[in-house]
Amino acid sequence: MKKDYLELQLENPIGDAISRIQFAPNCSNLLISSWDSSLRLYDVDNSVLRLEAPSEAALLDCCFQDDLVAFAAGSDGLIRRYNLHLGIIDRMGNHDDVATCVGYANEICQLITAGFDKLLLWDIRMEKAPSCSKILGAEVNSMSVSRLNLTVGIGTSVHIYDLRYFDKPVASSEPHKGTQIRCVSSIPYTRGFAVGSVDGRVALQISDSSSSNDIEFIFRCNPKSMDGRHHLASVNDIIFSPLVQGAFATGDNEGYVILWDASSRKRLIELPKYPNSVASLSYNHVGQLLAVASSYTYQEANEIEEPPRIFIHNTDNISIRSVSASNSASRS
Question: How far is residue 89's CA from residue 16's CA, in Å, rounded to a whole number?
């Protein structure tokens, strides 16, 4: 039987947990940050590793500025900038504690970083000093940037910021009613976000300015194999398809990736279980490729510690546009 995916082949295997994978904005180069302190750039189209840049600390997140420049957040608090073409590493600045999240807003040329201490905004056109800072008093669990909107998960709460007016959030909520947030994801084509919890639930809020058909619901990401039982594995990542509006994917700590349709509130398809936890997901810029990082995440003592692996699926083979959405998402 022909496989509908390929696995990235690295001459030097990734030596520790993968923290983030992300496709470039305009090509199919995949950025990989990991706890082994290296940032890697893999050319998926040509199956070749373009860059492996070691550093002195675990890299807990990464993002692109454009196809040639990337950033990473380190456990030493440093924010590193990478010239991916020349292989040059430049230190942007640092947090006073561990730096956990990094994202880039192209519309205002601002890098946004978060850590155990605060949120920082960096104007990349200026000298290496943050242009704005906000002390939050708590560790940022997850962060997502979409155009001028910043979605931040802290403890059990979600805060939405307009990056043009950073003094206070424009909205705050507690979507899972006291349950710890694991990941947040801004919706790239409209106002809204998705929030994954540590107990296997997703809260979805989508605002449609062209109509009154706002979407807001919570569901549990039960794999079919659970047969109606509650699935309490942490939802580690959520990503929205740039190809099919309303389609999104979830990846959890037991190795399941499930594709969903927001409008119908139904499951589209469940991919075969991965050998390890699903640490991170990414679609390429046209939505043709879906990358899955199968890696332990240091969340649970009994987590399987198989070597980290990255799989690339062609969404034409997944056929999310033609799959019959016959399996409803089980409501919480």
Answer: 21
Euclidean distance between CA atoms 40 and 37, whole angstroms: 10
Contact at 8 Å (CB) between 18 and 47?
Answer: no
The pTM of this model reads 0.92
Kindly give the pairing relationship between strand 149-154 and strand 257-261: unpaired
Tokens of 62: 């990464």
Query: Hey, is 67 helix, strand or coil?
Result: coil
Please state, in angstroms and as integers, the Cα–Cα distance from residue 308 to each residue in 13, 14, 120, following that order: 8, 6, 31
User: In the block, which residue shows the tokens 């947090």?
Assistant: 95
> Are 80 and 96 within 8 A, CB to CB?
no
Q: Is 220 left (phi over 0), alpha (psi -120 to 50) or beta?
A: beta
CA-based nearest residue to 22, from 306, 243, 279: 279
| 163 CB-contact burial (10 Å; exposed 0-12 / middle 13-18 / buried 19+) | middle
Cα dihedral 100, 41, 57, 295 in deg (nearest 10): 70
Query: Six-digit token pair at 76?
Result: 């030493």
Residue in 122, 112, 116, 119 with CA at minimum distance from that of residue 134: 119
- The pLDDT tens digits for 248-293 are 999 999 999 999 999 888 999 999 999 999 999 999 999 999 999 9
